[in-house]
Amino acid sequence: MRLRMPTWLLLSFVTFSLTSFLSLIGSIEPLELFFYDRAVRKLRPKFSTNSIVLVALNEQDIKKYGWPLSDATLAELLSKLDRQKPVAIGLDIYRNVPVAPGTEHLNRFFREKNRVIGIEKVISSGLESGIPPNNILKLKRQIASSDIPVDPDGVIRRGLLYPYAQDDPAMPSLSLALAFMYLDTKGIKSKFNDDGSLQLGQKTFFPLNQTDGGYASIDAGSYQTLIDYSGSPGSFTTVSLSQVLEDELPQNTGNGKIVIVGATAPSLNDLQRTPYAAIMSGMEIQANLTNQIVQSALGERISLATLPDYLEFCYLFALVLVFSYLLHIAPKIHYNVILFLLFFLFVLSVSSGAFYWSYWLPLANSLLSLGFISISSAFIKQLEQIKAQNLELKNLTDTLHLKVQLQAESLMESEKMASLGRLVAAISHEIKNPLTFVFSLSHALQNETLTDEGKNYLNSLIENAQRIDRTINDILAFSYPGQIQLISINLGQLLDETINLAWTSFTNEFKDGQVTISTDLSDLYLVTNPNYLQIAFLNIILNGMQASYLKGESPEIQVGCTYLADTREILIKIRDNGAGIDISDLDRIFEPFFTTKALGRGTGLGLWISYQIVTQLGGKILVDSCPLEYTEFKIIFPKSK
């Protein structure tokens, strides 16, 4: 048996597949990053920045000390910072060539001091090539990478832990190198786990993958992580280079802290876009990542992370599955809007809550899925309504049957068979007159010269007109119950005559039909109307023969009648070997115009007429059926006195 997938389930699979595909090829990534930036501003908490001090080279400093800074100026700056006793000094300024005067002074400082971390540009991109480090710091392994990955829209959301430089694969980024020095004072050492993750105290850093969170098209090479910003631009304590050189720096400003020296002057072009509306200097971005690493390792914050891809897909699939099913069972189309708004708020709340608790759960793909399902579900419901209306208007004959059926049911409740007789007489008068004209005109057209297509149309017209005529005649067969005359008859003899009539009718219609009829008839006498009762028996027997034949088997009909002494009733049984009747149809088989036969095979009036005849004659009909095996009708009459 062929199984058909429910529409709502199919819609769920299509939506999930489509949204997942769009996410994987990067079509939804810009929208995901749009939501990400606003979540960073509105939902992420602000973190303490007390452990880091920034020394900024601004435009006023450039006017006063020039650019590039001389080695003497830089040596003086570093010496004064060193006297503050910081844990580490990050020099976010390239120093790969001497700038006289003071070169020897600066080199001596680099050789003697171990707190300074210089930078090197490792990754070449576009027109920018790598920038070598200071040789003295390189030999002392006090060099780190200054590279920062940039998203396709030019925003900095990711940072490097290791750039995997060819000449020094173990070289860390500037942020990580400074964090290492600070954590070393806390007794925290780094180690790599077997799965390639970096363990630092209470935090395990996993490399960022290309499809993590809302990403799909980034270059996830090297060892990257999301930057969990501590706050908006200006969150860190910042002093100018002039303040340090002119001894205006308060005592112990950098004591036990990380000091980062870098440029904030716009003319030096080291300002970057971040998820915040304002731009941020490269030095401050490094400080954010350093602060994130330190606080995560100390257990002072839970850094922003992503869920595994399979969990994101499970969440999305469960969402579309539940939403699609609820739309399917919603009784009206306008409920789609209500459900969409409720699920929109739910998804927004879940994603916002997850982001606040440090998990980036993609939002755009969920909202697009809800919108697609809402529109598609409304369209499907509308289409189903249109199909239902088209079925009701299929053709004139079916419409006529439906109207007669509704009228017949209404009249049977109020006036029973008498009112039905008046209705049928009126309908037959109104229909048979134009129908006679149709027959006359059709017979006249048969004598005309017509094309093959015209002959086909004429034959179809005659067949449908004959079908309407048969329907009216079937209804007229039992329209006036008040005219029934009762006489005493031999029931066994009547059944025997009916069987012969049924056999002749069946074999005339189905030339290859081989019928087996077994009887168990008694000489029972019943006061009834033999003509009407024979019609009832004939309809039931012929139905059984046709059901068996259409099932693909030779009809085997069993007919019997007996007297039930305990209830003083006469029982007539008619059993066939047909396809049986579905349980769902048992309550409807005696309704007018109800039929399971193919179009044109029957009007659905035979059993209804039989039921009306038996009940009008004082009897009752019971039916027992086993699908694919048999159907048995039991007709019971009270014994005449």
UniProtKB/TrEMBL annotation:
Alphabetical list of SUPFAM superfamilies matching this protein: ATPase domain of HSP90 chaperone/DNA topoisomerase II/histidine kinase (SSF55874), Homodimeric domain of signal transducing histidine kinase (SSF47384)
The protein's enzyme class: transferase
Known EC number: 2.7.13.3
PROSITE patterns associated with the record: HIS_KIN
Source taxon at top rank: Bacteria
Keywords for the protein's UniProt record, in alphabetical order: Kinase, Membrane, Phosphoprotein, Transferase, Transmembrane, Transmembrane helix, Two-component regulatory system
Domain Histidine kinase intervals: 426-641
Gene3D superfamilies: 1.10.287.130, Histidine kinase-like ATPase, C-terminal domain
InterPro entries: CHASE2, HATPase_C_sf, HATPase_dom, His_kinase_dom, HisK_dim/P_dom, HisK_dim/P_sf, Sig_transdc_His_kin-like_C
One matching Pfam family: CHASE2
Protein name: histidine kinase
